[in-house]
Structure formats: structure tokens, C-alpha cells
Task: inverse folding
């Protein structure tokens, strides 16, 4: 293998591991995962397993490191896959070791609470302009466990330029992992973040014991809210009808592997948020993102009633049943998509 085909994946959670596994199975790449946790790195290297992706045998070619400089040395592709709220901290430490000619791909879904910035904006404050000129975002409906099991999956890559998006498309394309491209980074990033909040709402309604009618309403009206905010922030309306919007929303609102839906379901069942989060191994991005989206909507003057009620449940002790009732009893209006 040649030096210029090294890939560094920053973040050894389920999604980072699945993407690393996907690339490690291509003979043209040498892939190294960076893990904050030493025991996770040891498990990947010694027994080819990761507790964040249970039941999946990792390829022996996939190696893990706890040292960022060693992970990034000679990398031509860098994948940022840490939880959204720690991307700034991790990538600030990594920045000086990111090769200036590397293609950087963000695979984190969320909005930074302290700044209300998207991940591309966060990374734009950390990485040199030369690197950001070739920056891309990967998003869409993909459960890590299913990607690791080679389930046919379609996602989207948005790049600062068409050339960068096509380069990333070629790198990630597999017979079971189909990549579509566009250049709407704002819309793709917002779709990946906002759908987690709606998934919490979908889980809450299921936890309350309601069925398909209610879930369909939450998904459809949730998509309307996502689109309103996305367009107000500069995203393209069509993006929210695609893989990063409707596609990821459907997956996260209905799939049993969805951490955000699971948190919502348990909230609907009457458990406290503290109890739910205390026994979860992985991060449910929607919990933190709800606060960010709530503030963004207020700042943009965009009406997002579902987001408002999820925020109330998470932060103001609003009971799930009362939140649903408030949504149903809102003033009657026409169906407006934007």
C-alpha cells in the first residue's frame, strides 16, 4: 500500500468504526481509528471488536490508536466522526497534525450548543482554509450496525466544490454503500442534526402508546419544521426531501437501532432523562441538539412547535402527554410546508 492512501478516522464510536471498517475492506487503503478510550483501542487491535458496535467482527486491517499525531501521520483522508459536542475540542488538538493536502470529511451530526454552529462552521474555525476548500460532509440514513453488515445503504456527500464531493464519492463508494453528491453543505448538515430532535418526538409518542397515525403526523410535520429552519438558514428546500432530510428522518424515527428514538420512547414510558442517559453507552445527539435547535429557531423567528415541546420535556419538566396535547390543541391552520 502506498503512503498517500492512508485514512485517519477521528472517533471510534459506532459510526466512525463502521466507516473505518468500510474503507479498511478496500485493499487500496490503510485505515487507522483514533479512540479517546484506551480500552476501546486495545479491543479493536487485540480481538477485533468494539463495544460500541457489538456483535461485529472488525477486519484485522483496521487498526486503532490513542495518539492523534500517529493516527494522522501521512493521511490523505481524514474523517471527523466524534460526537458533535466534542468535535471542537478533539479537532483543535488534531489540527496541527492534519496534512494540508488531506480531504476532510465530517460524519458528525449535531449543532454545537455553545455557539449554535454547524460542524462545518466549527471545523472552519479550526482547520486551514486550504483544507476547508476540499471539505465534505457525509450524512443520510445509515445505521452503523447495518453498514457494518453490508446492508444496501444510500447516503449523501456534500462538498464545498463538486470536485471534492466526487473525490469523496469515489473513496466511499462500495457495492453495498451507494453515494450521491451535492453541494448543499448547509442543508445536508442541518438535515442530519434536526432529524434527531424529531426522532425524540417520534419515540415519545410511541412510548405513550400511540401508533402509526401519530408517528406519521410527527414525521410529516417534523419534516415541515426542519425544512422551514433549513431554508431560513440558507439550505436548499430540495435537500430536505432527499437522503439527508426525509431519508434520515424516516430511519431515525422508526428504526429500533435509533438511539434518539429509544431515548424518546423511554421518556414517553415515564423514565427520567437522567436515568435514561446514565445507562447508555453511546451518545444520543438529539438531546443536546434540541437545545441548539430551540435557540436557532427563536433567533431566526421560525415556528417549530414540535421542537418546542421536546425542549419542554427535556428542560422544563413538561410531561410527555401534556406536550402532545398542546400540539394537538394548537390553533387550527392550513397545511403550510414553509
Result:
Amino acid at each position: 500500500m502506498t503512503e498517500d492512501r492512508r485514512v485517519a478516522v477521528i472517533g471510534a464510536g459506532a459510526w466512525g468504526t463502521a466507516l473505518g471498517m468500510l474503507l479498511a475492506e478496500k485493499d487500496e487503503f490503510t485505515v487507522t481509528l483514533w479512540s479517546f478510550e484506551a480500552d476501546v483501542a486495545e479491543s479493536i487491535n487485540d480481538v477485533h471488536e468494539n463495544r460500541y458496535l457489538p456483535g461485529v467482527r472488525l477486519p484485522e486491517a483496521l487498526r486503532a490508536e490513542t495518539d492523534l499525531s500517529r493516527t494522522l501521520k501521512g493521511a490523505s483522508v481524514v474523517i471527523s466522526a466524534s460526537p458533535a459536542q466534542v468535535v471542537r475540542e478533539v479537532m483543535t488538538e488534531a489540527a496541527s497534525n492534519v496534512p494540508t493536502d488531506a480531504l476532510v470529511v465530517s460524519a458528525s451530526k449535531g449543532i454545537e450548543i455553545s455557539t449554535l454552529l454547524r460542524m462545518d462552521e466549527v471545523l472552519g474555525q479550526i482547520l486551514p482554509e486550504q483544507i476547508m476548500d476540499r471539505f465534505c460532509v457525509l450524512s443520510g440514513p445509515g445505521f452503523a450496525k447495518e453498514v457494518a453488515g453490508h446492508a444496501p445503504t444510500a447516503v449523501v456527500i456534500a462538498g464545498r466544490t463538486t470536485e471534492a464531493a466526487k473525490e469523496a464519492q469515489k473513496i466511499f463508494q462500495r457495492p453495498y454503500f451507494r453515494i450521491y453528491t451535492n453541494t448543499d453543505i448547509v442543508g445536508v448538515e442541518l438535515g442530519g442534526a434536526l432529524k434527531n430532535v424529531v426522532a425524540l418526538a417520534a419515540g415519545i409518542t410511541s412510548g405513550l402508546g400511540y401508533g402509526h397515525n401519530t408517528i406519521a403526523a410527527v414525521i410529516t410535520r417534523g419534516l415541515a419544521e426542519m425544512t422551514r429552519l433549513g431554508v431560513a438558514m440558507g439550505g436548499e428546500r430540495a435537500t430536505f426531501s432527499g437522503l439527508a432530510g426525509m431519508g434520515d428522518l424516516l430511519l431515525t424515527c422508526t428504526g429500533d437501532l435509533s438511539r434518539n428514538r429509544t431515548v424518546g420512547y423511554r421518556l414517553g414510558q415515564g423514565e427520567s432523562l437522567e436515568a435514561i442517559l446514565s445507562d447508555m453507552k453511546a451518545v444520543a445527539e438529539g438531546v443536546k441538539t434540541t437545545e441548539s435547535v430551540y435557540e436557532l429557531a427563536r433567533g431566526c423567528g421560525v415556528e417549530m412547535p414540535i421542537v418546542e415541546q421536546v425542549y419542554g420535556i427535556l428542560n422544563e419538566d413538561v410531561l410527555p402527554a401534556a406536550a402532545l396535547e398542546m400540539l394537538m390543541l394548537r390553533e387550527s391552520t392550513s397545511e403550510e410546508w414553509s
